[in-house]
Design brief:
The complex is a heterodimer of chains A (191) and B (122). In chain A, 51% of the residues lie in helices and 19% in strands. Chain A has 8 helices and 7 strands; from the N terminus they run ααβαβαβββββαααα. Chain A has a 7-stranded mixed β-sheet. Chain A is elongated. With 122 residues, chain B is mainly α. Helix content of chain B is 62%, strand content 2%. Chain B has 8 helices and 1 strand. The two termini of chain B are 37 Å apart. The chains are: A alpha/beta (191), B mainly alpha (122). β6 of chain A pairs parallel with β1 of chain B.
């Protein structure tokens, strides 16, 4: 549900934020208010909510955008770059790209309460772990270490039985991806 | 706030190894409608959803998910600060955005905007 006044307030909260976590979630919330459908925070900014060491390079959101949404985002100061890529420049000069990699989130969501009356929809911890394990199937050290960092950070809070069942399910559907094998290597390192 | 998941509907179709075209033939629901429902572009009518579910041998219960957990941002931040300390002692220090962007560039993706954005942050 579009609420431009609320979007402006959220943007102001992002402007006043002094750390990356606050800035990214309030920027995401501003977008969520500016468009007509719910936006879900995914990607690096979501990882950073759990690890505090990620340093996201952008804010990734899942939502379907129509022309009205793009127009309102532009009016709020989100410069349209190409496709569903935007750039927001803060008053202090910081630039934050905002991208919409998918219209729907691949997995489940959780709700993060930002304030007494502001809630942001974020990809669930378990779906985020799965996403990072999927990325780590590329065999590079960088994606492997990122997945280990997240797994280690959510070791005590994630539902690992659920993650394992999803890994097995997906591994069965796409055995060549070697998801189970990658998961076991990451899990062993994270413990 | 709607938690109807087009993604779950897509997963049910893929699990049955059905293409959108074959579902269209079996149900009469057009390929574009199926695609729009699965990608969240449209909120489907209940009758269309049940028609698709019946084609996948599934029920509305298969689309149900437990209500999403609610976590306070402050709580997440406290946990993540503790996690950051743990990662340090675990020999997994801060993530390096430059390495990530290099990997992305190797996949043929344009990273110039992200690099410019990172440079703008003190």
């Amino acid at each position: 549900m579009r609420d431009l006044q609320a979007a402006k307030k959220a943007l102001e909260r992002a402007e006043q934020s002094t750390n990356e976590v606050d800035r990214s979630v309030w920027l995401a919330k501003a977008v969520d208010h500016a468009i007509s459908r719910d936006a879900v925070l995914v990607g690096g900014a979501a990882v950073n909510l759990h690890t505090a060491v990620y340093k996201p390079t952008d804010v990734d959101l899942c939502a379907y955008l129509d022309e009205d949404d793009r127009t309102e985002l532009n009016r709020l100061g989100f410069k349209h770059l190409q496709d569903d890529h935007f750039l927001y420049t803060f008053r202090d000069g910081e630039k934050w790209p905002v991208e919409f990699p998918d219209s729907v989130v691949d997995g489940d969501v959780m709700l993060v309460s930002l304030d007494v009356d502001e809630v942001l929809t974020v990809i669930s911890t378990e779906s985020l772990v799965l996403d990072r394990i999927r990325q780590a199937t590329d065999g590079t050290e960088v994606t492997f270490n990122e997945a280990v960092r997240l797994c280690r950070a959510v070791m005590d809070t994630a539902d690992w039985a659920l993650i394992e069942s999803k890994v097995d399910e997906e591994n069965h559907r796409a055995p060549l991806l070697r998801l189970r094998e990658t998961y076991e290597r990451i899990s062993a390192r994270a413990h | 706030m709607s938690y109807f998941s087009g993604g779950k509907l897509r997963l049910l179709r893929e699990t049955k190894r059905l293409s959108m075209a074959s579902v269209c033939q079996m149900t009469g629901v057009s390929v574009s409608s199926i695609s729009n429902i699965e990608t969240g572009k449209t909120d489907p009518r209940m009758s269309t959803v049940t028609q698709l579910l019946s084609c996948y041998g599934a029920s509305l219960r298969d689309l149900e998910s437990t209500p999403p957990a609610v976590v306070r941002l402050e709580e997440l931040k406290q946990r993540s600060e503790r996690a950051a300390e743990d990662l340090e002692t675990f020999d997994l220090g801060p993530s390096n955005p430059d390495e990530r962007l290099t990997r992305k560039a190797m996949l043929g993706l344009d990273t110039s905007i992200e690099r410019d954005a990172m440079a703008s942050r003190v």
